[in-house]
Amino acid sequence: MNARRNETDIQGFHATPELSARLQQVLVDLIELALQGKQAHWNVVGTNFRDLHLQLDEVVDFAREGGDTVAERMRALDAVPDGRSDTVTAQTSLPQFPAYEHSATDVVDLIVTRIYAVVDTMRQVHDAVDAEDPTTADILHQLIDGLEKLAWLLKSENRKV
């Protein structure tokens, strides 16, 4: 029995339109989280300002890197990511971030809520992504783990015992 295959029989894995749409939703939410995190970073005031200012940069960096990972995974699967501002605004599931300055306590609550919104998007699409492409589901696992850790670190700022 010959195990060699013909070159014409070998094809890469391609994302279906459904998988592409699910990853696109994750992508726009990660981009929006990065934008809102930066908005919060610039406009946080009050007690523990400096530490929170720096923590928000960690959230922004994680969201940007995560968005890049998702977009590059989409390209690897011949899907076309769309990170244009108009697309992000039209498709994101995150609540709009309020304008102006906000206290450190309020910013913690606002950003933690948005982190959990992104995690919720990932959890909603996870099973369908896993059924079609377990490798991409592994990326979602890593992103969920990282975001939930960031949310825990942030929300601990406001926790009273």
Order of helix and strand elements from N to C terminus: HEHHEHH
Write down how many β-strands occur, each being a DSSP E stretch of 2 or more residues. 2
What is the helix content?
over 70%
Tell me the distance between the termini: 69 Å
Rg is 19 Å
Report the major sheet. 2 strands, parallel
Q: Bin the strand percentage.
A: under 5%
Q: Largest sheet, order of strands side by side? A: 1-2
Tell me, briefly, the overall form.
Answer: elongated
InterPro entries: DPS_DNA-bd, DPS_DNA-bd_CS, Ferritin-like, Ferritin-like_SF, Ferritin_DPS_dom
Family: Belongs to the Dps family.
Organism: Mycolicibacterium mageritense
Domain Ferritin/DPS: 21-156
Annotation keywords:
mainly alpha; 161 residues; Ferritin-like_SF; DPS_DNA-bd; DNA starvation/stationary phase protection protein; Ferritin-like; single chain; two-stranded parallel sheet
Explain this structure to me?
The chain is mostly helical. It is built from five helices and two strands. It has helices at 17-43, 49-76, 85-91, 104-132, 134-155; strands at 44-45, 102-103. Strands 1-2 form a two-stranded parallel sheet. Helix 1 (17-43) packs antiparallel against helix 2 and helix 1 (17-43) runs antiparallel to helix 4. The chain is elongated, with a radius of gyration of 19 Å.
Brief account:
With 161 residues, this protein is mostly helical.
List the helices and strands and how they pair.
Layout: H1 17-43, E1 44-45, H2 49-76, H3 85-91, E2 102-103, H4 104-132, H5 134-155
Helix pairs in contact: 1-2, 1-3, 1-4, 2-5, 4-5
